[in-house]
Amino acid sequence: MQHFDFSVLGEWQNIRLLLQSLWYTVIYTLGGFVLSLIIGAFISFGQMSKFKPWKYVSLAYLSWFRGTPLLVQLFLLYYGLPIVFGIDTVPWVSGVIALGMYSGAYASQVIRGAVQSIDKGQMEAGRSLGFSYAQTMRKIVIPQAVIRMLAPMTNEFISLTKNSSLLSTITVVELFRQANLLIADTYKTIEFLLAIAILYYLVNNLIGFIGLVLERRLGTGDDMR
């Protein structure tokens, strides 16, 4: 029968390494999420654009990044660039970019759906007030759409946090990678896997809680529907 020794989780060196790697995980995820919002906005408005080249590029982007696994995209970016173009890649930079590009495809659909859910009368009202199309989008449509994006974007952020564990495959020392290193040193597999599962759980539930608070404050929570 397997003997579990959770005392290894009480050693300060192990605690320090796990918390440090958790911080890296949060930073990498946040970086990827910010990048995904930028890419998502570009792709979503490309989908809605009447400018055909932008529209086709956006559709091609969506088709590729939603149709292939993140792990494959990560490997292609990290290993492919040096082989094909001779570009040196940094593991964590490649990881953040891969997370952002992958998530950007899904974020774009959240953004597009939120924008298109705003009543067309809002655009007409803005134009009747003398606003240009861009001004109406910026001052009237987008602020309302942002509120509607909160819940799905919170889910996407949580999903991205979990997907960040794949960065370990290109030697990025984030939470999952650090746990594997500690397991290799101590042979305490279940103990460290359980520890990082709890850390992921706490972080993702904190993200969910923050998202819920923002929803309620902006009048989109369950009690306001």
From TrEMBL:
<comment type="similarity">
    <text>Belongs to the binding-protein-dependent transport system permease family. HisMQ subfamily.</text>
</comment>
<dbReference type="InterPro" id="IPR035906">
    <property type="entry name" value="MetI-like_sf"/>
</dbReference>
<keyword id="KW-0812">Transmembrane</keyword>
<protein>
    <submittedName>
        <fullName>Amino acid ABC transporter permease</fullName>
    </submittedName>
</protein>
<keyword id="KW-0472">Membrane</keyword>
<feature type="transmembrane region" description="Helical">
    <location>
        <begin position="22"/>
        <end position="45"/>
    </location>
</feature>
<dbReference type="InterPro" id="IPR043429">
    <property type="entry name" value="ArtM/GltK/GlnP/TcyL/YhdX-like"/>
</dbReference>
<keyword id="KW-1133">Transmembrane helix</keyword>
<feature type="transmembrane region" description="Helical">
    <location>
        <begin position="192"/>
        <end position="214"/>
    </location>
</feature>
<dbReference type="Pfam" id="PF00528">
    <property type="entry name" value="BPD_transp_1"/>
</dbReference>
<keyword id="KW-0029">Amino-acid transport</keyword>
<keyword id="KW-1003">Cell membrane</keyword>
<keyword id="KW-0813">Transport</keyword>
<feature type="transmembrane region" description="Helical">
    <location>
        <begin position="57"/>
        <end position="80"/>
    </location>
</feature>
<feature type="domain" description="ABC transmembrane type-1">
    <location>
        <begin position="22"/>
        <end position="211"/>
    </location>
</feature>
<dbReference type="InterPro" id="IPR010065">
    <property type="entry name" value="AA_ABC_transptr_permease_3TM"/>
</dbReference>
<feature type="transmembrane region" description="Helical">
    <location>
        <begin position="92"/>
        <end position="111"/>
    </location>
</feature>
<dbReference type="InterPro" id="IPR000515">
    <property type="entry name" value="MetI-like"/>
</dbReference>
